[in-house]
């Protein structure tokens, strides 16, 4: 378990500074190629487990290239004990406002790139509805102040729900819950406008698909929706999001996995998030200091024995200087997986208390 948490921390660190949905390219640009990567180190103090010293957590390799309207992006990661693809897709830029991407890419759902600013993301990440990467097709189109994403996804990035060593949190195949992800359609809309001296983003997202019981071959519906808002002004950023997901499977739970560990979650829940961040800009020898507080919860919609709310709050700051990016975070979780909990939205069958940890992560990006 100690090794697993070490792996998990390094993954989150890289993810926090990772690539979101690609920005539009100039369809008439000259051929270009860019290779890079990252290396990160991590230290964490826990009140619910052993503390490890500063350790090398993750290595990352990136490739981005293009020629005219065609572009390509890929990222691969090496952790302690396994390696995994982050994303790998090719795209075609029809014009400055429209492009189509095919391959393993970020699923357009909720606030983008993430409904959080911290090293730890929000609760949605661990539920597979934030910073999730799956194989599929995504059409992105902007018209003035309107941005649309329409996507189709075939399943999880490996097509094997029994493989737990992955970056994205996907449905897991376990002996008790033998499911896997199948086809899914995503639709996302966002409108931007000036409001009270800042930029306001208002949007909504939805998806519909299925999961399959690999033993009975039966398909079960899988749906989700979200409404989201973000306002940024003079260094301040405020995010609000409410999301709901629903796996229409028998029983009260379904299993997910990532970073070599399967765990169970409530099969149907609301996931509200409230985040605030402030960028101090350049401070002495630092290029930027951004401090934040990210609060999110998972509220099961089945109010029955075996279900209980889960909470997560992260307070911290990120410090940037050239190629170095450092996160200092205090994370507190109640009945929350990886923060002292056995799952998400589950009843621990006893007193539920807050657990916390202090985390320092130092990364170098090149």
Tell me, what's the shape?
globular
* Quaternary state of the chains: single chain
Return the string of H and E elements: HEEEEEHEEEEEEEEEEEEEE
Q: Structural class of the helices, strands and pairings?
A: mainly beta
Number of strands: 19
Distance between the termini: 31 Å
Give the neighbour order of strands across the main sheet.
Answer: 1-2-3-4-5-6-7-9-10-11-12-15-16-17-18-19
- Unreliable sequence segments: 1-20
Number of helical runs?
Answer: 2
How would you describe the overall organization of this protein?
It is a single chain. By secondary structure, the protein is mainly beta. Helix content is 5%, strand content 59%. It contains 2 helices and 19 strands. The strands form 2 sheets. Strands 1-2-3-4-5-6-7-9-10-11-12-15-16-17-18-19 form a 16-stranded antiparallel barrel. The protein has a 3-stranded antiparallel beta sheet with strand order 8-13-14, with no helix packed on it. A hairpin with a 2-residue loop joins strand 4 and strand 5 (98-106). It is globular.
């Amino acid at each position: 378990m100690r090794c697993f948490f070490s792996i998990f921390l390094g993954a989150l660190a890289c993810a926090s500074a990772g690539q979101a949905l690609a920005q539009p390219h100039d369809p008439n640009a000259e051929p270009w190629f860019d290779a890079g990567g990252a290396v990160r180190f991590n230290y964490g103090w826990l009140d619910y487990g052993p503390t490890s010293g500063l350790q090398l957590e993750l290595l990352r390799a990136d490739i981005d290239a293009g020629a005219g309207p065609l572009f390509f992006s890929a990222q691969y990661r090496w952790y302690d004990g396994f390696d995994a693809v982050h994303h790998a897709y090719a795209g075609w830029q029809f014009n400055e406002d429209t492009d189509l991407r095919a391959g393993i890419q970020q699923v357009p759902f909720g606030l983008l790139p993430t409904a959080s600013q911290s090293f730890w993301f929000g609760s949605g990440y661990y539920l597979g509805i934030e910073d999730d990467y799956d194989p599929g097709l995504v059409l992105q189109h902007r018209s003035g102040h309107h941005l649309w994403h329409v996507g189709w996804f075939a399943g999880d990035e490996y097509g094997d729900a029994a493989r737990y060593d992955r970056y994205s949190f996907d449905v897991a195949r376990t002996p008790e819950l033998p499911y896997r992800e199948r086809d899914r359609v995503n639709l996302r809309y966002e409108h931007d406008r000036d409001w009270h001296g800042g930029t306001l983003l208002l949007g909504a997202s939805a998806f519909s698909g299925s999961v399959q019981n690999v033993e009975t071959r039966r398909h079960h519906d899988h749906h989700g929706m979200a409404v989201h808002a973000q306002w940024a002004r003079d260094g301040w950023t405020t995010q609000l999001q409410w999301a709901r997901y629903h796996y229409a499977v028998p029983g009260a739970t379904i299993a997910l996995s990532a970073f070599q560990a399967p765990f169970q979650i409530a099969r149907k829940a609301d996931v509200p998030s409230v985040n605030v961040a402030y960028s101090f800009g350049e401070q002495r020898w630092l290029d930027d200091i951004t401090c934040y507080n990210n609060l999110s919860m998972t509220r099961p919609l089945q109010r029955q024995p075996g279900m209980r709310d889960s909470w997560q709050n992260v307070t911290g700051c990120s410090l940037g200087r050239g190629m170095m990016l450092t996160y200092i975070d205090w994370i507190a979780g109640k009945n929350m997986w990886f923060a002292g909990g056995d799952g998400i939205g589950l009843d621990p069958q006893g007193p539920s208390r807050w657990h916390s940890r202090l985390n320092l992560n130092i990364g170098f990006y090149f």
